[in-house]
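Appendix B.2, paired examples.
Example (i):
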Amino acid sequence: MASEQPGQTLLSLEAFRRLVGAAPGELEDLIARGVLHQPQPGQIALVAGVAAFLAHLRARARDATLSRAATAARDARAEASELALAVARRDAIPDDQAEAAADFLCATITRELSGLPARATRDLRARAAIDQALRQALVGIADELTNS
């Protein structure tokens, strides 16, 4: 299993595979790509082999992270394109939700402005004129919101 060379401990390929938990064929692929070196056929230097295998694992993890980031960026660009298209087609939100939002907005504006004439004056004629002007403005706002 292990043999000694001056300054290094050599492990058989199978012993090194068990040590690092490599999948079948993974070490052979790393040897073929020049990542792992065999000082003797079927032998891997312990320290250099572990260092090279860890570097391989780090590179694989970095590549996976970059791949996930690229996928996330691609998905974000696709989502932005879909949103831009929906805005261009004027269907960014479903019609029923748009109507509910417009109804809520009109109700809020009406509620806030309904007491304004009474706060502005005690004169009933002036109050009626202000009330009429506000109602016309509210009708105009509602028309604009429903027609846009």
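Example (ii):
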Amino acid sequence: MISPFPCFHGRKKFFSFLAYLFLQGLLSLVLLLGGSSGAHAQIGPLGQTFEFDGGETVFSQNSQYFFAMLGDFFSLSSQVASAPSSVDVGTAPLQAPSLHLFVVASYFAYETPGAGGLAVNAYNGLTPAIGLRIPLSNGFVEGDVGVALANAYGTGQPVETVGGVYLQGEYYQSLGVGALDLFSNFLGYIDYIYVQGRWLAPVWKGKKLTLLLGPELIGQGNNGYNAEQGGAVVGLSLPALHSYLTLDGGLLRSSVSTGWGGYQGFSWYVSY
């Protein structure tokens, strides 16, 4: 597969250096602001929230995605606002505009038609990014930009290193008895777009967990592959563990098959 950034091919050391600079910059920012250790660190007048997310999605039509993310939110305001009364969407409960720095490690594979049948396209990726999250009344909006880097593996093709821009956006807002969550991202090295919409509502609340349930719709693809998905989402909010578990599954139809298949996924989000 041809990268939209051919000048990046074979520059593994360059990409590793970029990732190193990003991580060093994140560490320097923590030190510069007078960071302290501890799960609920306060950096001078600014609040800091650490996060981890990991999970997978597997499709019956020979596509799969695994990821792990580490991130930090840095509050841009010294004023502490009252926490909004909104449904837990499974992300950090921020109360002020915040800088968001994160790194995502991922593996993504899908198939496209080839001369001898279906060809596998696989990518081991690393994406450092930075963005801004702005709280809204009972919600938030966020935009992020970064550098997407990957080792690309294709059937009958040599391994190559590719890179491109990474864009991500999310909008969350309480809606009725539940909450609407819209998420999208763009991988520049394969011109791949992912769009996801979910609506979740609490159906049971106990002392140690809250159960949420709702529908989801997903569209994704590029000029070589596309898929449409629809299904259900189950969310488990576990405040004592500072975490949120998401399980989803449903029907899928992709460009590599004329019939319908299925998909399932899960993710575990933790923030302090």
